[in-house]
Amino acid sequence: MSDHVLICGWHDSIQVLVEQLTSRERNPRREIVVLDATTTQLPVGDPDVHLIQGDPTHREALTRAGALRAHSLIIPCDSRLSEHLQDSAVTLTTMAATAVNPGMYSCVEVLKPESRRHIERLNIDEVVCLGELSQTLLAQAATSHGLSKLVEDLLTFNRGNELYRMALPDELAGRTFRWLLRQLNENHDALLLAFDRGNKSMHINHPGRFVLEKADALFIVAETRPGRLEHLAKIY
User: Fold this and answer.
1) Percentage of the chain lying above the pLDDT 90 cut
2) Burial 48-87 (b: 16+ CB within 10 A, else e)
3) What count of Cα atoms within 13 Å lies in the side-chain half-sphere of residue 68?
4) 83-100 and 113-120 helices cross at what angle (nearest 10)?
5) Which of 14, 45, 123, 185 is least enclosed, having the fewest CB within 10 Å?
6) pLDDT tens string 160-179
7) Within 66-176, where are the H helices?
8) pTM: predicted TM-score of the whole model, two decimal places
9) Among 108, 100, 72, CA closest to 117
């Protein structure tokens, strides 16, 4: 197996994560390998989800799970452990997995903000801190009523509008943010929310006259993934 998603660890709440990843409308829909030391059977009937028994901190187990050929890595907190041990376990697993294949796109979950700083030193691509997210969302929801429902809708696959990441076609380089915002809305019923210029440089709701460049990645809100955007280059 290759180009798959490797999930290190399993507990009951991971089932929701797997269900989201195996949504039939996701494109591309990658196979999933779950690596866990104690689980003997997954409560998931999808043929694209596979279980490998083994310790995610061991190189041999990671190799059997195809870490050398994986597209992306997900390391969630293990709710089976006490809270003061969860972030330590995540750190050890992260060190082991990225040592086997540093090229995997890595997404890691931690509980505490101080743990986030340690994980980021390992050059992880995405770190989700549950403590920071929940507190920030609660504060915003208290002042902007309905915000939690909005975020839930955007982050849930196959329900309402979703967030899509798409590469900016070379043909559209040199166009402005405002121009593309208008064309996406008029031609695709989509909303251009932000773009990523690499090196963790995210630009959200940027001033309209800002010029887009090759290799920019777009973040678009739409009910379904917009088709190829090259045709927009013909519009003046």
Assistant:
1) 53
2) ebbbbebbbbeeebbeebbbeebbbbbbbbbeeeeeeebb
3) 5
4) 10
5) 45
6) 788 888 999 999 999 999 99
7) 83-100, 113-120, 130-143, 147-155
8) 0.80
9) 108
Entry field: residues in the chain: 236
**Tokens of residue 116, six digits:** 């986030």
Q: Are 86 and 111 in contact (CB under 8 A)?
A: yes
* C-alpha dihedral (56, 104, 2, 159), degrees to nearest 10: 90
- Is the pLDDT confidence value at 149 over 90? no
Query: What 3-state class would DSSP assign to 175?
Result: coil
- Residue 210 carries which DSSP code? P
pLDDT value at residue 26? 63
Distance (Å, rounded) from C-alpha 119 to C-alpha 108?
8
Strand 217-222 and strand 191-196: the pairing is antiparallel
9-24, pLDDT tens digit by residue?
998 889 888 988 887 6
User: Looking at residue 24, what is its pLDDT?
Assistant: 62
If pLDDT is split at 50, 70 and 90, which confidence band does 25 have?
low
> What is the C-alpha to C-alpha distance for residues 181 and 148, in angstroms, rounded to an integer?
25
CA angle 123, 220, 173 (to 5 degrees): 80
